[in-house]
Amino acid sequence: MLKKLLDRTHRGRTVSYIMVVVLYLIIEIMIHSGNLSSLFTSLLVPVCCYIVAAIGLNLNVGVSGELNLGQAGFMSVGAFTAVSISGYLAASVSNGPVRLIIAIIAGVMISAVFGLLIGIPVLKLEGDYLAIVTLAFGQIIKSIITNMYLGFDGNGFQFSFVDNNTKLAPGGKMLLNGPMGATGTAKISTFTAGVILILVSLIIVYHLMYSRSGRAIMAARDNRIAAESVGIDISRTKMLAFVVSASLAGAAGALYGLNYSTLVPAKFDFNTSILILVYVVLGGLGNMTGTIIATIILVLLPELLRSMQDYRMLIYAVVLILIMLLTNNENMKTRLRRLKNRFSGRGRKEGEVS
Amino acid sequence: MEFFSYLINGLGLGSVYAIIALGYTMVYGIAKMLNFAHGDVIMVGAYVVFFALSSFNLPLIPGVLLSVAVCTVLGITIERLAYKPLRQASSLSVLITAIGVSYFLQNAAQLLWSSSTKVFPAVFPSGSLELGSLSISYLTLITIATCVLVMVCLTLFINRTKTGRAMRACSEDKGASTLMGINVNRIISITFAIGSGLAAIASVLLCAAYPSVYPTLGAMPGIKAFTAAVFGGIGSIPGAFLGGLLLGVIEIFAKAYISTQLSDAIVFAVLIIVLLIKPSGLLGRRIREKV
Predict the structure, then answer these.
(1) Is B96 part of the contact surface with chain A (CB cutoff 8 Å)?
(2) Closest to A218 measured CA to CA, from A197, A195, A241, A202
(3) Exposed (0-12), middle (13-18) or buried (19+): which is A255, by Cβ within 10 Å?
(4) CB contact set of A129 (below 8 Å; sequence gap of 6+)
(5) Mean per-residue pLDDT for A318-335?
(6) What residues of chain B lie within 8 A of the CB of A137, using their CB?
(7) What's the CA gap between A235 and A223, in Å, rounded?
(8) Which in A55, A62, B47, B248 has the greatest CB count within 10 A?
(9) Are the beta carbons of B230 and B267 closer than 8 angstroms?
(10) What gap in Å lies between CA A278 and CA B95, rounded to an integer?
């Protein structure tokens, strides 16, 4: 068993599971001993949400090789589904964790349906055109949710679009309020739930990656024509990655939505999609452990730079550009490698390929 | 009559999109990258014109020329510092770098000029031209005229000059162009310079129509213009022109006849439908894949 966990194909996943669990234990200890500032405590659940969304996006961008600029759209679908379900069930299911699980499952299912519906047209396209269509869908989802009004009272649900025509009987409750989004949500997300969600998404993604379907997805990414010629159904494999990615984004959104008492649809805009993409690219395409580390660092970076006050986002931008230059420029890469050799491999000769 | 006035307004808005889209499409055609920082160059251009006009009391034309100069230099600098070292890197890394540049410009603007909205002065005569029952504002006329002028000049430049020919060669095949003695790096710099200069012109037209200047001003017009470029077939200059105009007209019609709140959704839905019917845009070339 232990040997199996440490062999070549399993080492990567074992490392990421252990890392998540260890980090969770450290943070829990810090919370209970009172060593964590309230600012960082408030960031714990959002970090978990971004990690789950980024793992999902990495499956799409890194493993399946399709650039997706609309991940926030799926988060939005998951978030507002979960918030509505939780609001509706608030009276009948009073147990927080149970309601959270129901809400997350609902968010995942609706996001998966959206992923399937959007995937059909999107995956007919290739390259940058595919990216722009995902961007377009992200914008459409945002603009539709911004115009949705949903409420319920004793007589059942009332729904209206663009203009608010809902007339609720006394005792009724608005679940979605157009541009104002959802208000008065009970905050039932917890850090533990977030970590469990991360572990579940890791298990799903790793199992997919190292299964027959996963190998088909990667084959389709590396060479579409060759993969097609050995009998891989390209649109089916791409769709699988796309829908799983959308579902994970939905789960992330659900957790995120239930962590705040108010949530506006404008939160999940193009910038959020881009932010998640940045986590994925910096963490490494197809590398889930890297994605987790990059997400944690990049969410915390602006907070750690808080002492710099106004300059922090500027520094964030500069760091982002510098990392991309350092890791992608051939010239810089060689210099870095030489520097590394000088410090580590004393016996290694200059110019030797490591 | 109402229809025609919406159409003219749409063409006016579309002209602005078209000028911005030219910047996206030229850079894509030659450097094969999505320059997400282009929208923020528009924002810088708008601030420069704003300060030139309101703080230094320059007349309009020198103000615009100053803005064009600043944006051109900015475009070349961005290309040199951020994109040139990544010529061999994957397109995704370049995309993230462009996003970094975009964040940088937005936050630098916020630091330098604060995040509060500044009111752009009225630069064009406010009246309108009356044609029977149809009235067209001078601003719309100026915008459309500028766009046509830019389009004609650019087409002549691309088709008639040596540099233009070199640009077309680079977009076809960079390796072969280098062998023919074309300095590809110089051509890419020129492309960025032209695109950024056009962004400055677009910023004046944009701010004349929507007179407020703020650090994230360029984001939405940037995304719309990028959509317009894809709509027309990214990499194609007539495509950007057509895509921009169509996008503007569709947006105004959607606002007028369907719903103001849903206009963005409608614009993007039309884009998706167009791409599904013609996967490389209206005027884009379909590159056949060889086995």
Answers:
(1) yes
(2) A241
(3) buried
(4) B230, B275, B279, B280, B281
(5) 80
(6) 268, 272
(7) 14
(8) A55
(9) no
(10) 9
Q: Pull the structure tokens for residue B212.
A: 């407020």
Contact A32, A232 (CB under 8 A): no
Name the amino acid, one letter, at A312.
Answer: R
Evaluate whether B22 touches B196 at the Cβ level (below 8 Å): no
Measured between alpha carbons, how far is B239 from B245 in angstroms, rounded to an integer? Answer: 10
CA-based nearest distance B265→chain A, Å: 4
Q: Is the pLDDT of residue A68 over 80?
A: yes
DSSP state letter for A62: I
Q: Name which of B93, B262, B289 is nearest A162 (Cβ-Cβ).
A: B262
Structure tokens belonging to residue B62:
């020198």
Task: Output the pLDDT for position A5.
Answer: 65
Q: Which two tokens stand for residue B290?
A: 């060889």
Assigned token pair, A66: 């399709």
More confident: B126 or A255: A255
Name the residue with higher pLDDT: B97 or A124: B97
Q: Which residues of B touch A332 (CB under 8 A)?
A: 85
Sorted by where each begins, the domain ranges of chain A are 14-268
Residue B276: closest C-alpha in chain A? A121
Do B234 and A137 lie within an 8 Å CB cutoff? no
**pLDDT, mean of residues B20-44:** 90
What is the C-alpha to C-alpha distance for residues B198 and B290, in angstroms, rounded to an integer?
Answer: 37
For residue B277, the tally of other CB atoms under 10 A from its CB is: 8
Residues belonging to chain B: 291
Tell me the range of A121-130, A223-232, B64-73, B92-101 where mean pLDDT is highest.
B64-73
**Token match 């203009």: residue?**
A163
Question: How far B100 CA sits from the closest chain A CA (Å)?
Answer: 5
What is the C-alpha separation between B171 and B176, in angstroms, rounded? 11
Predicted TM-score (pTM) of the model is 0.85
Angle, helices B38-54/B60-78, rounded to nearest 10 degrees: 150
Statement: residue B79 has pLDDT above 80: yes
| Distance of alpha carbon B242 from alpha carbon B219, whole angstroms | 21
pLDDT at B6 over 70: yes
Identify each DSSP E strand in chain A by its residue range.
148-153, 156-161, 173-177
Q: What is the structure's pLDDT at B196?
A: 94
**Residue spans per domain, chain B:** 12-218
Nearest-neighbour CA in chain B from A20: distance (Å):
26
Full DSSP string of chain B? -HHHHHHHHHHHHHHHHHHHHHHHHHHHHHH----TTHHHHHHHHHHHHHHHHHTS---HHHHHHHHHHHHHHHHHHHIIIIIGGGTTS-HHHHHHHHHHHHHHHHHHHHHHH-SS-EEPPP-S---EEEETTEEEEHHHHHHHHHHHHHHHHHHHHHHHSHHHHHHHHHHH-HHHHHHTT--HHHHHHHHHHHHHHHHHHHHHHHHHHS-EE-TTTTHHHHHHHHHHHHHH-TT-HHHHHHHHHHHHHHHHHIIIII-STTHHHHHHHHHHHHHHHSTT-SSPPPPPPP-
What does the pLDDT average to over A59-74? 89
At B193 the pLDDT is: 94
